[in-house]
Amino acid sequence: MKRKDQLSNWTWETNYENLVRKEIKHAPWILRITEHKDKPIPVLIIKEHRLSFDDENNHEENNHEKNQNTALKDRGLLYGSELIRCIPIIRALLSRVKNEDGIPLELHRVFETQRISFRGNLPLDDEAGYKLALLFKLQERIKGLDRVELMALRISSFSKEEAGYWYSRITDFSPAANRWAQAGLKILLAGHPHDNHVTTMLEKLRLRS
């Protein structure tokens, strides 16, 4: 009976204050839901916690300690029609995020409708962070919402290790190498504009998801 009472009294606001907020400081990734005056609302920004230069040099000496001297780096954003198309996929990714004790953070509750009223930060684990960073970055300048959705579905099917590998391929090398990797991965995941097979593949993946 107590469990049923707890569920019936559940609210996102209480969950955020009691469970979610405390995870933000140490989460490897942050999803910020905000507003920009020149863009449709809301705007989603994916941010990565990265060690400072000095911390990276000393990381091996302090690898058993929580490093407090980190910076949040913007890794991409999503808004408008592309966001609306990807909401079900984002919701599914966030539904799997848990804290260190294995308790679900219920982050997907923010995206239960297309009208997203929450504004603030959500803590993400590496799997959700890598996948959303890939999506937010690669969807830039993609023509066609079907291609964006296809890309999102295929990224969501990656394992954490696959997502981390592909994220490193588009971020960890020279500007030219990163740009080439991004261009190639866009085609690999979402095909070419006006390719009829994009719709066919998308419909198949929708049935599986």
List its salient traits.
alpha+beta; 47% helix; disordered N terminus; 209 residues
Notes on the structure:
Strands 3-2-1-4 form a 4-stranded antiparallel β-sheet. Helix content is 47%, strand content 14%. Mean pLDDT is 90; it is low at 1-5 and 59-67. It has helices spanning 2-8, 12-20, 53-57, 80-94, 126-138, 145-156, 160-169, 175-190, 197-208; strands at 29-34, 43-51, 70-79, 120-124. The chain starts with a helix and ends with a helix. The protein has 209 residues and is an alpha+beta fold. Helix 4 runs parallel beside helix 6 (145-156) and helix 5 packs across helix 7 (160-169). The protein is built from 9 helices and 4 strands; from the N terminus they run ααββαβαβααααα.
In brief, what are we looking at here?
This protein is an alpha+beta fold.
Number of E-state strands: 4
* Major sheet size, sense and barrel closure: 4 strands, antiparallel
Overall average residue pLDDT: 90
Strand order of the largest sheet: 3-2-1-4
Our estimate of the beta-strand percent is 5-15%
